[in-house]
Amino acid sequence: MAHAATLEIRNLSKQYQVKGESLPVLDNISLSIKPGEFVSIVGSSGCGKSTLLRLVIGLEDDYRGEILLDGKRIVGTSLERGIVFQEHRLFPWLTVEQNVSLGLLNAGLPEDQKRKSVQEHIELVGLKGFESAYPYQLSGGMSQRVAIARALVNRPEVLLLDEPFGALDALTRSHLQQELQRIWEQEGITAILVTHDVEEAVYLGDRVVVMQPRPGRIRRIVDVPLPRPRDRGSYAFAEIKDDVLAEFSDTPRVELLQPAVQRTVADWQFSW
């Protein structure tokens, strides 16, 4: 089992230079994520969700504030942090086994341990028997499973997921959400999911971080105190989902919470 890390984001701000002018993307983001916690981040396009993941993974270092992993500042990419993107980004000329083994390319492990870890993670994502298959022989959902196995194979402390199921059909997405929950629980690592899907965020997250755009900042953090596995059809689930969705509505929250006015037949006028 991987070591689950504590992630601390303190007063994080980020801007880009566009045509000689500063474009603020993130503004004063502060977030503490506990070891083994699953945090979902939702927000409309342009709120900086993916930029935040890029900074946590270490792809950029030009920002203000601090990003700390177990108390140490993140500098550059590292095997401590794995990431899964919306596109699986598998190499088409490599087999499933070879694609997963790329996650161990820079790991200082003996070859027999690498082979064992690759096989264990192929089984973990439910693809035993497909080791020799090529990406063109896999469905979209299976390809994302390979991408998840590749991200987990060196047992990172944090798993980052950037809209991993966004390109999949609804049934496949629902099934892989269940699988991701199982994998996360089995691996015991810290996970951060960026998604546009509020239901997905509530289904998977211990907390849902709601961001607002231009520049991106945290609007609200919603706890999800529901037992796992979660029942999407339950009243408690729908209540939390509606609570998060209300943050994206122009209707004041007081109006959303008021019961609808009950009308009688006499209140209506019919024209024939």
Question: What features would you describe in this structure?
Answer:
The chain is an alpha/beta fold and 272 residues long. It has a domain at 36-53 and 80-249: Rossmann fold. It contains eight helices and ten strands. Strands 6-7-8-3-9-10 form a six-stranded mixed β-sheet, sandwiched between helices. Strands 2-1-4-5 form a four-stranded antiparallel β-sheet, with helices on one face. β4 (64-69) and β5 form a beta hairpin. α3 (111-124) crosses α4 (140-152) and α6 packs across α7 (235-245). The radius of gyration is 21 Å and the shape is globular. Mean pLDDT is 88; it is low at 254-261 and 265-272.
Supply the key terms.
272 residues, alpha/beta, six-stranded mixed beta sheet, 8 helices, 31% helix, 24% strand, disordered C terminus
